[in-house]
Amino acid sequence: MQRTRELERHHHPTLLHPPPQSLQLTQSSSSHVIPTIDLSRHRSETIQQIHHASHNWGFFQVIHHDIPISVLDNTISAVQSFKELPVQVKSQHYRREIGSGVSF
């Protein structure tokens, strides 16, 4: 199990790597594990898992998505850069009007 986790760590951006101690689950904490959606599974099973995780948790982790690590790293970098901008600049992208979509 530990070897599998070590191999999986190489496929995720470093920002998403949890500290090693957080990988140790105890019996009491196992019910609080973030749902993981495996996109390599059958479509109907994946849809059910997404529905369940969304309904019960509101979020989930996706694995086997085939998104290149460079795209993930660039996305995280862009989000970090945006968060570091002054509020005046970020507020130009914030909209609350119905139908305008959310951009911040």
Automatic annotation (TrEMBL):
Regions that span the bilayer: none
Coiled-coil ranges per UniProt: none
Domain Non-haem dioxygenase N-terminal, first and last residues per copy: 34-96
The keyword DNA repair appears for this protein: no
Recorded GO MF terms: metal ion binding; oxidoreductase activity
Entry keywords, A to Z: Iron, Metal-binding, Oxidoreductase
Keyword Transmembrane helix listed: no
InterPro entries: DIOX_N, IPNS-like_sf
Gene3D superfamilies in alphabetical order: B-lactam Antibiotic, Isopenicillin N Synthase, Chain (2.60.120.330)
Segments of this protein annotated with the region Disordered: 1-31
Domain of life: Eukaryota
Composition bias type Low complexity, residue spans: 22-31
Protein name: 1-aminocyclopropane-1-carboxylate oxidase 3-like protein
Taxonomic lineage from the root: Eukaryota, Viridiplantae, Streptophyta, Embryophyta, Tracheophyta
